[in-house]
Design a protein that fits this description.
By secondary structure, the chain is α+β, with helices and mostly antiparallel strands. The chain has 3 helices and 4 strands; from the N terminus they run E-H-E-E-H-H-E. It has helices at about 15-30, 60-65, 70-80, and strands at about 1-10, 35-40, 50-55, 80-90.
């Protein structure tokens, strides 16, 4: 299992737009072959901070996600709304085992 946690800080005036665009990306991402999870999280005490928890069965499935039309649309749409560039951190998932 390949997990990426993407940390995003959004400009305050773009929070609702970011949530809407990211929710659309979520709904399409969870339908991808090899997707295990795609969670959208908002930090409780810092409403401009988000984390995306993306889990895929394999490196191939994770790489294919980045080639989908919905991901490319999301990336282009939300880029100007970010207060700083997003940061994705990759992990190898150990538990739960499939």
């Amino acid at each position: 299992m390949i997990v990426t946690i993407v940390h995003v800080r959004v400009k305050p005036e773009n929070i609702e737009d970011f949530i809407q665009a990211t929710t659309e990306n979520h709904h399409l991402s969870v339908k991808e072959p090899g997707n295990l999870r795609f969670d959208v999280l908002q930090k409780g005490d810092q409403f401009t901070e988000f984390a995306l928890y993306e889990a895929y069965e394999s490196e191939t499935a994770a790489a294919e996600h980045k080639e989908t039309a919905h991901y490319l649309k999301w990336r282009e749409t939300v880029a100007p709304w970010m207060a700083k560039p997003r940061e994705g951190v990759r992990y190898n998932g150990l538990q739960p085992e499939k």
